[in-house]
Amino acid sequence: MAKRRKRGDGGISLRKDGRWEGRVVIGYDDKGLPVTKNVLAKTKSECIAKLKALADCIKAPAPDQPKPGVLLGDWLDLWYQSYKEPNLRPNTQMSYERRIYQHIIPALGNIQMDKLTTNDIQQFYSELKKDGRLLRTEIYGAGLSDQTIRGIHTTLHAALDKAVAEKLILRNPADGCRLPSAKAREMQVLTPEEIQRLLIQAKEDGCYELLLLELSTGLRRGEICALQWNDLNLRTGELRIERQVHRVKGELVVSPPKTKASNRSVILPAPVVGILKTYKKTIASRWMFPSPVNEDSPRDPTAVRKRLQIVLERAECKKIRFHDLRHTFSTVSLEHGMDIKTLSTIIGHVSSSTTLNVYAHVTDEMRRTAAVKIDQGIGRAEPQEEVVTAPQKPAPSVFQAHKGQRRKPGTGCVSQINDHLWEGRCSPIWPDGKKHARNVYAHSEAECETLLAEMILEMKAEISAEKERIKTAPKAS
């Protein structure tokens, strides 16, 4: 009776051609069927030796097997510092660091990656949805938004994918997670009447040129704050967008646009160019909209957002984000017949499909209007109601700007920047015919008024001295 071989050693048999064949199971396919590998030899003893070597090789651990015991927190830190951070923009770095060090590592960082399960990650996402917000819970609630949770998943999934590639784990446990639906933020646009009221109030509040330019171009907030006068050709009306400004860890940072499509040029309407020409005479800075604190610095996008909210409230407009002014420009442009490709180029989208997705509601209405016109033109259908082919020019608004308490000419103005800072500003006309603004800052309104009065006296003395110098200066022959 032949001796039985041990399980896992494989089996040998004599083939019809006289050679010996050894065969061993090396694994199983997706259907659970065995996958085998064979060896051939001229003698039985040689075949046994070859089969034993093959079986030993299969039993031996592969050199690239996953490494047990690596903590997820250690890997996330290494992955971010070594693979991601060097290639990320400052704002994107902040997003990654918030996701990794404020959310993922505190919750999952002490779990070994080879023991991390899909259920662990799914429960983590559920906790974020329920009670994951760390700041401003009194305003936004205790849970994180669906969009934030999807961003955290994107970061975690990418880190685990790299761990699979580095043979630290066999599979990515984040693959099977269910995510909140990707809901776009609700878009709001101003009506023609609200646009008029907004600009009327903006003139009173000193931000007319900025908001007019925004409604004429649809620039992003960081882009419009980063504009310099040499970006604008006052003769042709061409405006180049070549940079953006944003705040990183408390400091304003100017950087190139995020995408190639964002680096672009737009042509301004002639009336807007005329208004900017006049406005330029009052600005003694290379920045088109300089900081009121430092004329050598661009305006803070956060300050622009806060200023917009004040103007909207005074103009009796609905509360919208600054980004909704961009939506307003795009919607009005489409309604007045601008094609999608041109609009996509102007607002700096990477592709026209992005523009179509964002403004599908507008293009749907345009298609319905076109269908009615085709039906009337080709099918000769009787129009049931008048079809407006283009938006009508709105009637002039009768809105009166909120003026508040008026100050006497020559006394400057005082405004509250935040809870603990007041700004005083005066912009007299100097002998060169231009307005030169100066500012003072204080921690109370009374202190600011005192400092402003002292500064105005100093400026008046300097202006008088400058006029005297010009009067007595020898004239060129």
Based on the model shown, name its key terms.
477 residues, alpha+beta, three-stranded antiparallel β-sheet
Notes on the protein architecture:
This protein is an alpha+beta fold and 477 residues long. The protein is built from 16 helices and 10 strands. It has helices at 44-59, 72-84, 90-108, 118-131, 137-140, 146-165, 192-205, 208-217, 221-225, 270-280, 301-314, 323-335, 340-347, 352-358, 360-377, 445-472, and strands at residues 11-14, 20-28, 34-41, 238-241, 244-248, 251-255, 264-267, 413-418, 421-426, 438-442. Strands 1-2-3 form a 3-stranded antiparallel sheet, covered by helices on one side. A 3-stranded antiparallel sheet has the order 8-9-10, covered by helices on one side. Helix 3 (90-108) packs across helix 6 (146-165).
Summarize the structure.
The protein has helices at residues 44-59, 72-84, 90-108, 118-131, 137-140, 146-165, 192-205, 208-217, 221-225, 270-280, 301-314, 323-335, 340-347, 352-358, 360-377, 445-472, and strands at residues 11-14, 20-28, 34-41, 238-241, 244-248, 251-255, 264-267, 413-418, 421-426, 438-442.
